[in-house]
UniProtKB/TrEMBL annotation:
Annotated keywords: ATP-binding, DNA-binding, Nucleotide-binding, Transcription, Transcription regulation
GO molecular function, one term: sequence-specific DNA binding
Name of the protein this chain belongs to: Transcriptional regulator of acetoin/glycerol metabolism
Pfam families with a match to the protein in the record: AAA_lid_14 (PF25601), HTH_8 (PF02954), PAS (PF00989), Sigma54_activat (PF00158)
Isomerase is among the record's keywords: no
Domain Sigma-54 factor interaction span(s) in chain numbering: 344-575
């Protein structure tokens, strides 16, 4: 039932006096609002609506900057539609604070008389029943007419308001249109609701645009952060995306590439690659040469088609520079020279002369042959020589020629082509020489290399090219060779086990390693260095000291396994030591000097006795004896033959 303003006024007056007999004839939302106002103890005769300070108003506007930016044009359109009809359009925040308003000057002046201005609080708690405050309670559009207002001072006004929702559903503000009650019209609320829809659609569009912008930023960041070159081609063959790595490989600026045909970008020299890409087929790690104005770059190309409902939407191509990929593989696999001459410890004159020679030839490009017993530090010298050379920033690839089965060493050194044997990796695999291109290859235990392979190695050194196993293409390689062995290669040449011409090719600069037994003054330095390192490695809480008796015992030992054996003995001692000082009790039984007989025995007699004791200890297990001595099985066999030990 529609109530007249006079009837509403009567019911309102009775309510204030505590008479609720006719309260039930009010519409439900109005009943609920008036009850809330009574609970809030709102003054129905309030002379003035509370106003917040300018500072708080400014802060509120800044917080709702996007809402205001979107709402003002819509409010302007709504106002233009009702211009000169006695209405004011206002925007309020979720606290009921008016933050923007526009209308005819006459109605704006009237609004000021009832404090309907920016900065006033029109929540129900502050101003009683009104469209703005009641919307914030019901979360639904509403129209409040005349005496439906709880406060008497605004009962000659009508207001229509609707909540504004963010895309996620939360209310961000309220749009209201108010005027004198004589101008009330049922369609006013519909106009406000339509305007709110327009605001919400704009917010949704802006949110979608912002999300798209964020997505594009993510995409561009990902594209630029990968190490490979990336190129995206649309179904027409035009480039839609390119990163800086790909642009560098192609020798062009990104602006020259985007939105241009891939065939034009690649040019005549790369016509084959363009045809491969435009064929829209998938491929993985296909090796190609890409030519630009400064030369060529060898890459592995991987391409993937983008399909939607069996329709091609474009192709993504990855360019992986082989040189970069090899450097990464070497870093990850540990084939990297980490040690320098500053890591070499010693003061023995003969040893330091060896170090000086190594430093002197490190700047050369000549091949180096390191000769010496196992455990004397040939690997350390090889790394130091590499790092001290002009190739120090290039790869350092090490291979132990004695640790790889004879049937595999050729493919390890020179690689293999696809299909060269059963189980061969698709696309083939580069060998150590290719991986070392531009750097150094360290051939450890070169004396163990089979004769047949020595011939291939000699050809690679002389021609500076290699051919993969099963392949036909000559691959240029620019490497410096550092070889090492514990064998007497001249004797091996005499026995027919090592090619004389290869020996001369490797033996350009010969460095003879000094065994530890000839470096007695270096042993205390090495002990302190290793103990410090081991305490850190083994998570010892305190740095251990070394008893003088331990140093004496270790200085008097013959050290057939050299520095490697010393390091192993000290690691065992640090592990078993219960205190903060290493004592003779922490050494293996063989190192506890019980009399001077061990020191005074001739070197070879002592070595023979030592090997004999270890054979008994390990029940003639050759592997265990060799491990404890820190030498290879082949070296141990030679010593057994030499000393006539069965």
């Amino acid at each position: 039932m529609k109530l007249t303003q006079n009837r509403l006024k009567q019911i309102w007056g009775k309510m204030l006096s505590g008479n609720f007999e006719e309260f039930g004839i009010l519409r439900p939302e109005l009943q609920a609002s008036w009850k809330r106002c009574l609970q809030y103890k709102v003054d129905p005769y309030i002379p003035k609506i509370p106003v917040i300070g300018n500072h708080d108003l400014l802060a509120g506007k800044m917080r709702l900057n996007e809402l205001i930016d979107i709402s003002l044009p819509v409010m302007k359109n709504l106002y233009d539609f009702v211009k000169n009809s006695g209405f004011i359009v206002v925007l309020a925040d979720t606290d009921g604070i008016l933050i923007e308003s526009m209308g005819d000057q006459e109605i704006m002046d009237s609004a000021q008389g009832v404090s309907f201005i920016s900065g006033t609080n029109w929540s129900e708690e502050s101003a009683g029943t009104n469209a703005i405050g009641t919307v914030l309670k019901t979360l639904e559009p509403i129209q409040i007419i005349g005496c439906e207002h709880f406060c008497q001072g605004i009962q000659n006004w009508t207001c229509s308001a609707a909540p504004i929702h963010e895309p996620d559903g939360n209310i961000v503000g309220v749009l209201d249109m108010s005027g004198h009650v004589k101008n009330v019209h049922l369609h006013t609320l519909g106009m406000v609701v339509a305007a709110v829809y327009a605001i919400e659609n704009q917010m949704l569009s802006r949110r979608a645009w912002r999300n798209l912008e964020i997505s594009n930023n993510y995409k561009n960041t990902i594209i630029e952060s990968i190490n490979e070159g990336l190129l995206a081609v649309d179904p027409r063959g035009f480039v839609s995306h390119v990163n800086m790595v790909a642009a560098g490989i192609l020798g062009k600026d990104p602006e020259e590439i985007i939105n241009n045909p891939i065939s034009m970008i690649l040019g005549e020299k790369n016509k084959l690659i363009a045809n491969i890409i435009l064929s829209q087929g998938d491929m993985t790690d296909r090796e190609v040469n890409i030519y630009n104005n400064t030369g060529k770059t060898t890459c592995l190309i991987t391409s993937r088609s983008i399909c939607k409902k069996n329709k091609n939407e474009g192709t993504v191509i990855l360019f992986n520079e082989i040189a970069r990929a090899r450097k990464l593989v070497q870093h990850m696999s540990g084939s990297e020279a980490r040690l320098t001459f500053s890591d070499i410890i010693g003061q023995n004159e003969k040893f330091m002369e060896t170090v000086r020679l190594a430093k002197a030839i490190s700047g050369s490009i000549s091949n180096v042959l390191l000769l010496g017993e196992s455990g004397t530090g040939k690997d350390l010298f090889a790394q130091a020589i590499h790092n001290g050379s002009v190739r120090g920033n290039g790869p350092f690839v090490a291979i132990n020629c004695g640790a790889i089965p004879r049937e595999l060493i050729a493919s390890e050194l020179f690689g293999y082509s696809e299909g060269s044997f059963t189980g061969a990796k698709r696309g083939g695999k580069p060998g150590k020489f290719e991986l070392a291109n531009g750097g150094t290859i360290f051939l450890d235990e070169i004396g163990e290399m089979p004769l047949q392979l020595q011939t291939i190695l000699l050809r690679a050194i002389e021609q500076k090219t290699i051919t993969r196993i099963g392949g036909h293409d000559l691959i240029p390689v620019d490497v410096r060779i550092i070889a090492a062995t514990n064998k007497n290669l001249q004797d091996e040449v005499g026995k027919g086990n090592f090619r004389q011409d290869l020996y001369y090719r490797l033996n350009v600069v010969r460095i003879d390693m000094v065994p530890l037994r000839e470096r007695q003054e270096d042993i205390p330095l090495l002990i302190n260095h290793f103990v410090k390192h081991l305490c850190s490695k083994l998570n010892k809480t305190k740095m251990m000291q070394v008893d003088a008796k331990v140093i004496k015992a270790l200085k008097n030992y013959h050290w057939p396994g050299n520095i490697r054996e010393l390091q192993n003995i000290l690691e065992r001692a640090v592990n078993v030591c219960q205190g903060s000082v290493l004592t003779p009790d922490d050494l293996p039984a063989d190192f506890k000097v019980k009399d001077v007989r061990q020191v005074l025995l001739p070197v070879e007699l002592y070595e023979k006795e030592m090997i004999g004791q270890l054979l008994k200890k390990h029940n003639h297990n050759i592997t265990r004896v060799a491990n404890e001595l820190g030498i290879s099985r082949s070296t141990l066999y030679r010593k057994l033959y030499k000393f006539k030990l069965s």
